[in-house]
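Fill in residues.
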């Protein structure tokens, strides 16, 4: 059977190259299942409104159920049909004859059909993504709970900055992933509207009950404007933006794992399954999963850029350009959906080297801020003066009492020894565990403050 849609208005044959250029068959496999559901809902809608007689309705439903049970036959994906919607219609007409099969497309266009399919498919993907995010968040919380006392260095500018704990570090990532969850949940409400019944853009003179077909397909309501319903792809852009944000965070965590697993840093040992070796260097254990995931974040961001760029110049309503967007949407959500469970696995199976972390926690004068704070709290100095004194002592290479005293005289013209500072106090203050322990306010790394964060996030997770 040839492409029936062309036969009225258009003449002649087309080359395979031309057909291939126009076809969306590869991506249509992604929405083909949804398309059968859309067909069934539309058919039931036609029945309900008495737009179709019982005989063709029965024949069509039987054929659709058969396609659903046994799969859409390969010939429906022949590129001469351009898309699965036309290919499947040809296949239905083959099976039940044009007198019956030619009635399914009453009051419908491929424009509302494809928009409905994409939304159905996207809703499934979003639910799966929120589930994967929940697993990742649970893993981060579990590992964090085991490491509330694991002191490690925290960094700004990738320079040793102040001590923190592994729990506090991982919870920072969990916070971001919980926001990604919230973003997807909010976006879901906007994806969850049915374009079906909008037809080409102007709706239809057939008395379709759009709320009925929307409900059959599990949508919360019909899209309120039929032109917007076929033309809008901001729902896709929104979800791609959400997956881009999520993958950007995933990529940063992957970057930590790559860095932390180097011999220089040595904070983590990744499970062998998440690593590859070298074809020439027999000793190699490379963090390839983390690296691919870091790159995948770029692919997903590229999908968002492509989607925005495809849509931005389009006037109302449907334009064929929109077909070119769907593969990017698929690439974006699939990139995230492949990555997030692997990230959970990688974190959950990693071995953290707590001794290395502890050894690094005090490096680079990482507790200097605490010493300055103590000069303020216990010895009455203005913070800026204390900051200058401690900074000058570090410039001289040490934070022992003699150097700090010299720095105080030099940089502020005062004596901290006269004010009562002694070596014992300095030693206590410079202990990384002490610096963590006193940072006990809301959001801080002290074990008790972190325990509150874990509890709050577990509660949020239970509600998500
Ligand atoms: N394959 C098309 C797409 O993805 C389906 C809609 C085709 N509509 C049209 N007027 N040619 O957008």
């Amino acid at each position: 059977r040839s492409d029936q849609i062309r036969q009225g208005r258009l003449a002649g044959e087309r080359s395979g190259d031309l057909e291939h250029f126009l076809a969306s068959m590869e991506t249509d496999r992604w929405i083909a299942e949804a398309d059968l559901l859309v067909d069934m809902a539309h058919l039931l809608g036609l029945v309900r409104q008495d737009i179709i007689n019982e005989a063709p309705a029965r024949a069509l439903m039987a054929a659709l159920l058969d396609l659903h049970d046994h799969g859409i036959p390969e010939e429906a994906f022949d590129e001469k049909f351009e898309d699965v919607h036309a290919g499947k219609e040809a296949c239905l007409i083959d099976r039940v004859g044009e007198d019956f099969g030619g009635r399914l497309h009453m009051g419908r266009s491929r424009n509302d059909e494809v928009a409905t399919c994409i939304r159905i498919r996207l809703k499934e993907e979003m639910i799966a993504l929120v589930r994967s995010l929940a697993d990742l968040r649970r893993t981060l919380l579990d590992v964090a709970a085991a490491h509330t006392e694991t002191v490690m260095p925290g960094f700004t500018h990738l320079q040793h900055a102040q001590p923190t704990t592994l729990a506090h570090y991982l919870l920072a990532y969990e916070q971001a992933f919980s926001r990604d969850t919230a973003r997807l949940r909010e976006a879901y409400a906007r994806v969850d509207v049915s374009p079906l019944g909008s037809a080409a853009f102007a709706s239809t003179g057939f008395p379709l009950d759009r709320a009925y077909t929307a409900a059959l397909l599990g949508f919360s309501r019909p899209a309120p404007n039929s032109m917007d319903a076929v033309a809008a792809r901001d729902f896709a852009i929104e979800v791609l933006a959400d997956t881009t944000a999520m993958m950007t965070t995933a990529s940063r965590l992957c970057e930590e794992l790559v860095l932390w697993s180097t011999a220089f840093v040595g904070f983590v040992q990744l499970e062998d399954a998440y690593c590859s070796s070298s074809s020439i260097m027999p000793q190699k254990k490379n963090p390839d999963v983390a690296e691919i995931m870091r790159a995948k974040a770029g692919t997903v961001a590229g999908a968002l850029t492509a989607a925005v760029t495809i849509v931005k110049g389009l006037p109302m309503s449907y334009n064929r350009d929109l077909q070119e967007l769907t593969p990017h949407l698929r690439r974006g959500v699939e990139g995230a959906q492949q990555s997030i469970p692997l990230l959970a696995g990688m974190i959950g199976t990693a071995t953290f080297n707590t001794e290395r972390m502890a050894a690094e926690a005090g490096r680079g004068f990482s507790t200097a801020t605490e010493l300055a704070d103590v000069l303020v709290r216990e010895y009455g100095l203005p913070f800026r003066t204390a900051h200058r004194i401690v900074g000058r002592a570090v410039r001289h290479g040490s934070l022992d009492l003699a150097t700090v005293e010299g720095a105080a005289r030099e940089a502020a013209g005062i004596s901290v020894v006269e004010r009562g500072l002694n070596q014992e106090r300095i030693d206590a203050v410079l202990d990384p565990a002490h610096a963590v322990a006193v940072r006990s306010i809301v959001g801080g790394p002290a074990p008790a403050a972190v325990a509150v964060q874990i509890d709050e996030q577990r509660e949020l997770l239970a509600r998500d």
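The chain has a mean pLDDT of 97.
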